[in-house]
Write a structure and sequence with these properties.
Length: 139
């Protein structure tokens, strides 16, 4: 059965999409990089370049997106996380994500949205996942 709300695939009643950090890395991020099918569709959205209130879906619920990486400068490696109204600022050091055998899969970083005019911190936050070695992660 297919449930849709605002063009987003919804889970059947009673089911929740609550993957662990490890499951997101192994079953969603790695297959996406390798152009393989995902076990459950995760939409793509420019989360880093969008104001949080303009990101698709129900803002009262946790949402998952695959987001293309845009660099800040043409020849640089820094990711651009500025939006029309502010920026996504990292909160602390990256958390290491490991598999059941304690092998390093990648990192999880938390960001908080800051408004640019008053420079004030908001209640909006997001987690960004990055694979350590995209080719070596087992799917």
């Amino acid at each position: 059965m297919d449930f849709r709300l605002n063009d987003f695939l919804q889970m059947n009643p009673g089911f929740r999409f609550e993957p662990t950090d490890q499951e997101l890395m192994v079953h969603y991020l790695q297959p996406k990089i390798q152009s393989l099918p995902l076990p459950y569709p995760i939409p793509e959205a420019d989360v880093c370049g969008s104001d949080p209130w303009n990101i698709p879906g129900d803002s009262q619920e946790e949402r998952y997106f695959l987001c293309p990486v845009e660099t800040k400068y043409p020849n640089g490696t820094r990711t651009n996380r500025t939006t029309p109204s502010g920026r996504w600022k990292p909160t602390n050091a990256s958390k290491q994500v490991v598999d059941s055998e304690n092998k390093h899969l990648g990192t999880k970083k938390t960001f908080v949205f800051y408004m640019s005019k008053p420079g004030s911190k908001t209640d909006w936050f997001m987690h960004e996942y990055k694979l350590a070695n995209p080719i070596q992660v087992r799917v």
